[in-house]
Design a protein that fits this description.
Layout (H helix, E strand, L loop, with lengths): L1 H19 L3 E9 L2 E10 L3 E4 L10 H7 L4 E7 L2 E4 L1
Antiparallel strand pairs: 1-2, 2-3, 3-4, 4-5
């Protein structure tokens, strides 16, 4: 039960930070039991998102990421206080 509450709290914090933040690179940490997962999220213009960009972020090469890192490229939408990542 505590783990579920923590995960919901973490998701809420990340969502609230992104909703008021500018596009750019963010460090994401997740704890699942005793495991730590660290990844990078890049929120790009036009509601694009890239997890763990392979080709750098200054500038983000969205075409290369889409072609060669497709499983980590998607879009996101914000509705109220909810973020949906596709």
């Amino acid at each position: 039960m505590k783990r579920k509450i923590f995960v919901v709290l973490l998701a809420s914090i990340i969502t609230s930070q992104v909703m008021f933040a500018q596009s750019g690179l963010y460090l994401r940490t997740q704890f699942w039991g005793s495991q730590l997962n660290v990844s990078w999220l890049f929120f790009a213009p036009k509601n694009k998102i890239v997890r763990n960009p392979l080709y750098g972020v200054n500038p983000l090469q969205i075409d290369k990421e889409t072609a060669n890192n497709a499983s980590n490229v998607g879009t996101y939408t914000k509705t109220g206080d909810t973020m949906t990542i596709n």
